[in-house]
Amino acid sequence: MDLKKYTKEEVFLSAMKSEIEAKRIYTMLADRIMNAYMKDRLLFLADEEAKHYKGLEKLYKNELKKKSVKLPEATPVPLPALKEPGPSTPVSEVIASAMAAEKGAQEFYLAFAALFPPDSDQSWLLIYFSNMEKGHYQLLESEKALMEKEEYFDTDWPMMHVGP
Q: In this structure, are residues 74 and 41 in contact, taking their beta carbons and an 8 Å threshold?
């Protein structure tokens, strides 16, 4: 991912908006989930995204000498976004979307780190975020496999229990 054609401010704002949206979607999805373990994992991910936002906000204010953050409606930096689930969207589809977003975020943070001097605190933090996104992807990957099994076994076909 080439971020050199964007200003640092555009990249920061895109990253922060992405983290806020991810937190919102993970929280919304956790509200729909009945499985307590998966609900906890989704809320864990929402909390992680909130922490990323706080880290980015602090870095943004220090780097750009800004006092506050005003997130734009849309961002110029193309980042994979989590799809907001509809009421009938299978959870496994939402998780697949989240996996794509986490993988994109991992690549994004590596490219963002390259905008700073190597071994700088800024670069280190962004590489750390990239590694965390990779961990989020792996967590979601295992949850998706479990969820697909549960969705399969939870399927109910009309008349399936009617005998001859």
A: no
Given pLDDT bands bounded at 50, 70 and 90, which one contains residue 155? very low
Instruction: Classify residue 109: in a domain, yes or no.
Output: yes
Other Cβ atoms within 10 Å of 74 Cβ, number? 6
Single-letter residue type at 106: Q
From first CA to last CA, the distance across the chain in angstroms is 60
Q: Are 116 and 4 in contact (CB under 8 A)?
A: no
Range of the domain at 21: 8-83+90-153
Residues 37 and 124 sit within 8 Å (Cβ to Cβ)? no
Q: Residue 108 belongs to a domain with what CATH number?
A: 1.20.1260.10
Q: What digits encode the pLDDT tens for the residues 111-150?
A: 999 999 999 999 999 999 999 999 999 999 988 887 777 6
Distance CA 100, CA 123 (A): 23
- For 97, the 3-state DSSP assignment is helix
How many structural domains does the chain have? 1
pTM for the predicted model, two decimal places: 0.83
What integer pLDDT is reported at residue 127 of this predicted model? 96
Residue at 164 is within a domain:
no
DSSP letter assigned to residue 75: -
Domain membership flag for residue 104:
yes
Other Cβ atoms closer than 10 A to 36: 8
